[in-house]
Amino acid sequence: ETGVTQTPRHLVMGMTNKKSLKCEQHLGHNAMYWYKQSAKKPLELMFVYSLEERVENNSVPSRFSPECPNSSHLFLHLHTLQPEDSALYLCASSQVGATTSTDTQYFGPGTRLTVL
Amino acid sequence: KQEVTQIPAALSVPEGENLVLNCSFTDSAIYNLQWFRQDPGKGLTSLLLIQSSQREQTSGRLNASLDKSSGRSTLYIAASQPGDSATYLCAVVGPGYSTLTFGKGTMLLVSP
After folding, report:
1. Closest CA to A79 of A9, A11, A14
2. pLDDT tens digits, residue range B16-56?
3. pLDDT of residue A28
4. Do B76 and B63 form a contact (C-beta atoms < 8 A)?
5. I need a surface site. Which of A5, A87, A109, B71 has the fewest CB within 10 A?
6. What is the rounded distance in angstroms from the CA atom of residue A31 to the CA atom of residue A25?
């Protein structure tokens, strides 16, 4: 595997289910991100992890719970979601260095989530 | 709060045309600006990155410019091809740990 991978690619869940999204990066990066992409809205940053510590949380509801056990893996645990949470969830990674002017993020293919 | 706007929202052109996609941002305190491409059902692919001190970047048929003081960037695509059909996203990196603020994108369709 190369780059950033995400599983599953598609997920349908009921409002009372508990599920997890997985992201893995094979690029040796030190930062990972979760984004939400809803129809007709810009990509929204949800969480940022650097060196396995959460450094940013953009006021995301507690029904979304991230976990970063090591620098290569990132999870998003989902429970009691709402239909409006249906979206494409994208994971990204980057190498954050001394200067941010050249940092770029590498994205996975996303998980298409549908909440019934 | 940084806001990024992309115009037009959608664009349809015949193959071979040169075209320009526009991006504007409200806060000029950025580290860099990036253009991404997103194909249906896939993630984002970085096309060009312009550092805040630069005015433009080129890659093949793509040229991106940055006017930081006016909060504007353009992506120029020369001699468009059907394979260029995708959604093009503009994003800026500002203070806050390399976080990207995205526009809604321009959906481009190049017909043969």
Report:
1. A14
2. 999 999 999 999 888 889 999 999 878 899 999 999 899 99
3. 92
4. yes
5. A5
6. 10
B108 touches chain A (CB under 8 A): no
Helices and strands counted in chain A (H then E)? 0, 11
**What are the two backbone dihedrals, phi and then psi, of residue B84, each rounded to the nearest 5 degrees?**
-80, -10
Choose the weakest-confidence range: A27-31, A94-98, B100-104.
A94-98
A64-70 and A73-79 as β-strands: parallel, antiparallel, unpaired? antiparallel
Instruction: Using a CB–CB cutoff of 8 Å, tell me whether A53 touches chain B.
Output: no
A67: Cα separation from own chain's centroid: 10
Is the distance from CB of B4 to CB of B91 less than 8 angstroms? yes
Nearest CA to B71 among B90, B57, B87? B90
Region of poorest pLDDT, from A95-99, A105-109, B65-69, B92-96: A95-99
Number of residues written out for chain B: 112
Given an 8 Å threshold on Cβ–Cβ distance, is B100 in contact with A109? no
Note which residues in 27-56 of chain B have CB less than 8 A from chain A.
31-32, 34, 36, 41-46, 49, 51-53
**DSSP bridge pairs for A50:** A31, A53
